[in-house]
Structure formats: C-alpha cells, structure tokens
C-alpha cells in the first residue's frame, strides 16, 4: 500500500472512530431521557366528524411520534435531592408523581392542541398521549416531606434526604 493510501486509510479510521464515539455518547446520554408515549384510550379510531377535534385520525397516527425526550436533571445537595423534568405544554393536573423505594415515577397524559380545528397535520414531531418516566434516586429520601410544583414547562420535585442519607461530620479523636 502506498504512503498516500495508508494516510487516507488512517484518516478514515480516525473519522470512523470519532463518529462511533459520538454515537455511543449520544446513545448513553439519551437512553435515560427517552420516554414512551402511547395513545390514550379516548383517542378516536376513525375519521368521523365527531372525532375531528380530538386527535389526528387513526390512519394518520402512524406519522405521530411514539417516543419523546422528557429530559430530567437530578441535583443532590447536602439536604435534598431535586428532580427537574422538562415537560412543556402541560398543566399540573396532567401529572402524577409516586415514589417506590429509590425510584421516582412520573406519569400522566399530554393532550394534543385542540385549538387547531381547520386543516390537517402535515408534521407532528411532538408526542401526545399517556407517558411514564422513572428516575432512580441516588439516596434514600423522606416521602412525606416531598414537594412537587410545575412552572414554565418544568416539573420540579424536591425530596428531602432521609436522616441516614445526610452527610455527618465525624470528629477525629487522639489515640490513647
């Protein structure tokens, strides 16, 4: 193989490795945020006039996204764990929050925008329907003191740490 061919091969190998690393990193970061949405039981299955405002008809639903990102940030301080989930276009009534052991579960339903009645959907990149997102917490928390709020498209859940999970200072004694 000529020197030029070797340089081209080496450059292509480096480019491929870099691209592979990028895809692996993207996959690792995105896998936890990817959330499955499935149609609610109340969505129409035909295109009858009574269902026109409820959702796109069944034959068009294949173009709708069934997966979406509900990005979550988990922040731990000395006393609390704060979970922030980006969920724009929803209301606080659309969410349910539960804690089972070290898993925080958020579920609910994102409704399609019903104000758009005339015309047809050409591009639908947002996910609608029921969803569930599980977030594993890094430490034990106090369920009874947990608070959740929703503002500006962000669900914020503040979970005070249990006494056992809080850091403690240990005094160093002089050995006798």
What would your notes on this structure say?
- It is a single chain.
- This protein is of the alpha+beta class.
- The chain folds into two domains: 1-31; 34-165, Immunoglobulin-like.
- 19% of the residues lie in helices and 31% in strands.
- It contains two helices and nine strands.
- It has helices spanning 3-31, 58-61, and strands at 34-38, 67-69, 72-76, 80-86, 95-100, 103-110, 129-136, 147-151, 154-160.
- Strands 2-1-7-6-5 form a five-stranded antiparallel β-sheet, with no helix packed on it. The chain has a four-stranded antiparallel β-sheet with strand order 3-4-9-8, with no helix packed on it.
- A hairpin with a 2-residue loop joins strand 5 (95-100) and strand 6.
- It is flat, with a radius of gyration of 24 Å.
- The N and C termini lie far apart (74 Å).
């Amino acid at each position: 193989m000529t020197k030029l061919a070797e340089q081209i091969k080496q450059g292509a190998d480096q480019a491929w490795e870099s691209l592979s690393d990028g895809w692996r990193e993207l996959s690792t970061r995105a896998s936890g945020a990817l959330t499955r949405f499935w149609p609610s039981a109340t969505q129409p299955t035909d295109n009858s006039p009574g269902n026109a405002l409820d959702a796109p008809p069944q034959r068009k639903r294949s173009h709708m996204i069934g997966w979406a990102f509900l990005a979550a940030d988990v922040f731990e301080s000395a006393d609390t764990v704060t979970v922030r989930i980006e969920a724009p276009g929803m209301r606080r009534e659309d969410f349910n929050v539960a804690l089972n052991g070290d898993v925080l579960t958020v579920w609910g339903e994102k409704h399609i925008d019903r104000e758009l009645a005339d015309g047809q959907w050409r591009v639908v990149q947002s996910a609608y329907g029921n969803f569930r997102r599980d977030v594993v917490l890094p430490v034990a928390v106090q369920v009874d003191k947990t608070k959740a709020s929703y503002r500006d498209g962000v669900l914020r859940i503040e979970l005070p740490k249990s006494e056992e999970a809080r850091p403690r200072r240990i005094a160093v004694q002089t050995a006798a």
